[in-house]
Amino acid sequence: DFARKLEPFDDAFVVSATDVRVSSGLRTVGERTKAVGRALEQLRDRGEISGWRDELYPVKASFGEDPCLLIERAAAPYFGLKAYGVHICAYVREEGSGKEKMWVARRSRTKQTSPGKLDHLVAGGQPYDLTPFANVVKECQEEAGIPEELAARAKAVGAVSYDYLVEEGDAAWGGATGLKRDVLFCYDLELPADFTPVNNDGEVEEFMLWPVSRVAEAVLTTDEFKMNCNLVLIDFLVRHGHITPENCEGYLSLVAGLRAGECS
Q: Do residues 87 and 136 touch, judged by C-beta distance below 8 A?
C-alpha cells in the first residue's frame, strides 16, 4: 500500500486510515515542493516509484487554479492527481480530392511508456511553466521538427479526459501504478503536403502518412495506438465527420465517453 510507504516522511506527509495530507507546517508552495520532492526521491531510489522523468507537474484541482505544490510527473498516478497534456493531430489534404491523411508516429522502443506503440504526430505532458499553446510549439519542434511558424497554425479544438486505474505490471504506463486522471488539450494542425516530419529528441522510431480511413481502422480493430491516443483520434474523427450518427451505432455514448473523466 503506497500510503503506508509515506508514513516515515512525517516532515512532508500526515498519513491516517482514510487519507494522506501534506504537512500543515509547510506553508508555501516552495516548502511543500521541496519536502515532498525529498521524500519521493528516496522512494524512487528504493524502487518504489517507476519511470522517473525529472519533470514537475502542478498539483491543483482544476487547470485555472494556482498550484498547491509541484510534484514529479512520475509520482502523479500514485497519488491519483489530475495531470494535463497537449495532443496534436497533424494532417494534410490531398490535392484535387481534398481527402485527409494523417501523420502517424511510431514511438521509440526505448520509451518508458508504451514503447513501439503508434501515436499521433505530437504529444506531451503539460509542464507548470508553459501555456498549452507554448507547449504545443515546443513539442512540435522536438518531436517532429515542425518550425515555429508552422506549429503556430495549430488550432485548439477542445479536450478529452479519462480516469484509468493502472494495475501493477501495466507496461503501457512505464511500470507506474495508481489512478491516472488526465485531461488532454486537443489541437488540429493542417500541414503542407510537401512537409515531412523529422524527430529531434530520439523518442520516435518512424513517421507514416496514412489515409484517415486506415487510422480509423487501426483504432477500431487493433491496440496498436497508445491507449490515450485513441480518445484524441476518435475526437478528431468525430469532429471531421468521419464518425457520424449514421455510421456509428452508439454514437452519443461514444462522444460522451471522450470526456468521461472530470474535465476541469
A: no
